[in-house]
User: Fold these one by one.
Assistant:
Number 1:
Amino acid sequence: MVTSRVPAAVAALLDILRAAPSLADSVHIEDGPTAVNLTDNDRIYVGWQPNSEAAVNLLQDFNAAGARTRDENFIINCYAESRAGDKDMSLRRARVYEILGVVETALRASDAFPEAPTLNGTVLWAHLTTGDLDQSKSEGARAGLNFGVSCFARI
């Protein structure tokens, strides 16, 4: 019996983002935290946010009387970042929101990816629900966006 859909959902989210044509050549997709590597200017971290202890926040409860099934709500914490050596913050901010737009589009159903909103069948639904922008100008302009992919599953 599966006690959580979190591991399968995180793996599916990584697969969906890595398959997104708009991200494939220009954005590095990372599974969890990584060592500092500034060679890629645009990145998405799945299951990691700066200054956060949790990769995923989850809550489970019984679905109905009889305790046969449980509902699981969880948020996969993610972080998108765009950086460059210049000091033009507006370009970095626009780029990080462009990356977020591709993530949101990748989570919507399409003819090519009809199972995207269910993270390839791992959950009943998933969608982008939260976001916080941070910016800095040390060693060039950097815009980062903490975002969450909220999911609902029945186990």
Number 2:
Amino acid sequence: MSVKWNGTKLLKTIAGNEAAAAKFYRDIAAEARIGEKFFEILATDEERHEKIYNALMDKHSKDIEVELDETDAEYMDSLIENNLVFDEMLIENAKKLFSKDQIFDLAEKAERDTVMYVVELQRLYPDLASDEMNIILKEEKSHLKMVLDRKKENKMNVNLML
């Protein structure tokens, strides 16, 4: 059975994630203990992406319904409902309590989720700003690779200290 599913909540989730990730990255970049300039670069990209998603919401809020199989709609709803939120408490704990490995784990989770959300957005709305979505997907994959490379580098440095 098919149901009408409104993609506004997906766009809102992605835009919210981009804003929260930008804040998380910026706060982590400012933390002297971690001090990764690289996080500032990620934050700047995420802010730009958030603006694109918000513009898409403004432009397409009335025409973003799509017919989905009921199971697919439930899957999308579940993804959105179980979204990791970078709230103030998580960011403060990350700055004070988390190790660099844990910071990279959170960044990896954020980037993996974003890649997944963008792929789903493209699947559901292939004509929705396809050029912009392709660029964002490429950038998000690049972010994920950079985080994974930094994570690997950090582990090698820790192992050298042992």
Number 3:
Amino acid sequence: MSDSEPLRGVVARVVSDREVILNKGTDHGLDAGEYVIIIDPDTQSITDPETGENLGGLKRIKAVLRVVESTAKLSLAKTFRTRRVRVSGGLGGAGFGNMFAEPKYETRVETLQLDPQAGLPISEEDSAISLNDPFEVVSAEEAEDTRTVTLWR
């Protein structure tokens, strides 16, 4: 893998609401522990309305995943980010009586789901990630700080 160009490939299969198979593996330089971003392939170039110049486009990131297993030709990547959210109690809780209750927190895990009613495993139609979506390898810092379109639960 070149230092200037990240390794790129595509999603070969959506396995579950947290896992995908990537079409690259150790033969290509993709190893367990690496991070990948899944990119919306429909990202559009923006044209300057005044000059007609192509300004480029912004990548729309669908998900950030960590490679958990890698073979010669393919890799299994999984969501890994968690978020602690208040679900009740305190001033953020629902209802007046709950206002003075001790806040209750839960840890939510990022999923690949767009629809909160979707079950496990999810179909490709319900997934933020589709067959042939491109990916590229990113650093751990980029993986933690990248905003995505996926659901946390």
Number 4:
Amino acid sequence: MTAGPTILASGPWAADEVLSTWLEEPYVAADEATAAADAAIQQLKDRDSPSHDGLSTRLASHHVDEQGRLHLELEPVRWALRLLPGGAARSMTGQCVVRDQQGRWLAGRRASWVATWAGRWSLGAGGAVDPGESPMRTLERELSEEWNVEAERLQGLSLVLLPSDLVMFVGVAWLPDGAEVQRDPEHDAHEWWPADVDAWPEHAEPTLRGLARAVQGVA
């Protein structure tokens, strides 16, 4: 049986309640992981997907203090390691779930040419945490880049370890009344799914339904 996600810490947190410190030296992966990352990048090139590599962010450690604030110790890491199933080396990504004033959920279908999650539906906006960036800032940036919109209210909700060894910082953005989204080229379709998760369309994957229910339990 495949292990599911592990909740490392739960909020909610405001922006000033997520505190980051940075280690100077990049994380050094084992030779086998480095070779596998090289191969993963080549596979992206072979199918004409974006194959840029570089530095991203890794979670070195974390704790929640007595006031409930989340402290993250972060370090630079090679971006391509996040592509390895079961070997992502705790690379960090941000996932910004987006809701409107009626409680509906913004879903976008990833274009066929993108490097990850190609052709599949996802909730809101997401992407790698850049070096030197707070994960809360990642949520804001990805929301702006992918949907050209700003949140009226933004909360950090949870820190989650996925079975791939990728660490996901999950937050929720509530849009102002009347806000209109404009999708970026990385999406070829988008929909507003009902507030009631049980009323979602058939193409909503179980992982997305589970994420939404987890958000409802915290936000």
